[in-house]
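A common beginner's mistake is to predict each chain separately and then try to dock the pieces by hand. The better habit, illustrated here, is to supply every component at once so that their relative placement is modeled jointly.
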Amino acid sequence: MQRTRLLIVDDEAAIRDGLKRILERESFVVETCSSGFHAIEIMQQHTFDLIITDLKMPGMSGIEVLKGVRTLQPGIPVILITGFASIDTAVEAMKNGASDYISKPFAPDILMEKVKNALSQRHSSSDEADFKEEVSQHHGFHQFIGESAEMQKVYHRIVQVAATNSTVLITGESGTGKELAARAIHDNSLRKDRPFVAVDCSSLAETLLESELFGHVKGSFTGAVQAKTGLFKIADGGTLFLDEVSNITLSTQAKLLRTLQERKITPIGGTQPVPIDIHLVAATNRNLKTMSHEGTFREDLFFRLNIIPIELPPLRDRRQDIPILIRHFLKKYTREIGKEIRGIAPDVMSFLENYLYPGNVRELENMIERAVVLAEGDCIRNEDLELWDSNDEPASNKMIDRIPMNAEELKEMKRHIRDHAMESLESVFVRNALERNGWNVTRAAEETGILRPNFQNMMKKLRISIKGERGFKPDHSPDPSE
Ligand SMILES: Nc1ncnc2c1ncn2[C@@H]1O[C@H](COP(=O)(O)OP(=O)(O)OP(=O)(O)O)[C@@H](O)[C@H]1O
Ligand SMILES: [Mg+2]
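With all components supplied together, the output reads:
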C-alpha cells in the first residue's frame, strides 16, 4: 500500500524538524520546506495527502499557501500552525477552507489527533467523470477544441483557478491558445461580468507601458497633458491579462512586484496609492525560470506570477486532437467563406495529421482557412495547397497515382507519404529553430519545447550538424559517411 505523504511548510527549522520527527514515527512520508513559494513549487511536481503550514512566514503567508493548495490539489486537507496571538486569522483560515489549526506550542498527541482527523476528511475530486463526459460531448471546453488528456488537464486547471484570485502564469509556444485560456479563466469566474483587460507587454516602450498600467497624473511628465487612468484601475473587479510578460523591463518588473504585494497602485507622479481588486493572469512563450537565472527576469516576480502555472501543450504532443481541430476549422471556414467542401484528399489528410506544427493551433487554423479559400473543387488537394513540392517527385507521390490494391499496400503508401513529408518538414523545423537561436542547441531545444537529447537525435537523423555551420544552408546532399 502507498504510504501517506505529508508536506510541512515552516520558516523555523526547529518546528519543521520537530514535526517531521513526530510524524515519521507514525510512518508517514514527510517532506519539509521553508517557504510558501517553495511549497507551491513542490506541489506542482508532487501530490500529498496533507499539508501542514505555518501561518506567519515572510514572503508568502500560510493563507496564500492554503489558497494555492485549494487550486493545485483541491481535495487535500490543510492544517495551519498559528501562534497564540493569531487565533482570529486562524478562524479566517478556516473560512478559506483550512481543515483545522493548531497553536504553538503543541503536544505530539494533539498533533496526531488533528492529523488523523484531517486525513479522514480527504475527498477525491468526484466530478472527474462528469467533466470528461462534458469535454467529449463538446469536443472541448469553452472556446477550446480538443479532448486529449493533456488538454483535459488544462481545462481542469482553468476551472479550478477561475474560482480563486491566485495569480496565474500561462506558458506555451506561440499559437497554443494562451490568450484563449486567459479568457476562459475570466469567463468561468465570478468576475465574468466585470472587465477583462488584455495588455500586450511587448508592444509598448517602458514609459508608455507604465503609464498604461498604472496611469498618470496631469503634468507628471512632458506630454502628460491630461490625467490617465491605468489599466489596473480600469480592470478593477475583473481580470487583468498581461500578455508576453517576459518583455517588461527590470524596472517595470519591480513596480509590478510591488503592486502585486501591496495590492495598491500609485499613478505616475501621484502620491496616493489606491487599492485595486484584480485577478492577474500573465502569459509568456519564454521560460521565465531560465530568464531569472540569466538575470533578465526577477526571480521574486516569477514566483509571484507562477502561483498557479498553466502549461499549454504544443499541438505535436497531442496529435489525437488534430483531426477534431481540422473538422472544426473546416466547418468554421466553409461556413464563413460560403464554400461547400466535401472532403480532404487522403494524402493531404495524412500530411496534416503528421505535420509538426511549429506554429501550433494557429498554424493549423491558417492552413485550413487557406485550403478552403484555394480549393478548386469540393475536395482539398495538394495541387491547390502546395503543402509539399510535387516537383520533388518523392517516391510517395508516384505511389499516389496508383490505387492501392490492398490494406497492406495502403498502409505502406501512407507510411511513405508520412515519412517523406515528415522528414523535410522536420528538417525545416529544426533548422529554423537553430537559426532563431544562433545555432545554440540548448536554446533551440528549449524554445521548441523538445528535450535536448531528443532534439539532438532529430538533428542526427536529419544530418544537421552544428560544426562549421553557423548560417542556414539547405543541405540535401547525402552524408558521405553513410
Ligand atoms: N485548442 C484550441 N481550439 C480551438 N482554437 C484554438 C485552440 N488553441 C488555439 N486556438 C486558436 O488559435 C489561435 C491562437 O490562439 P491564441 O492567440 O490564444 O494563442 P497564443 O498562445 O496566445 O499565441 P501567441 O503566443 O502567438 O500569442 C486563435 O485563433 C485561437 O482561437
Ligand atoms: Mg497570445
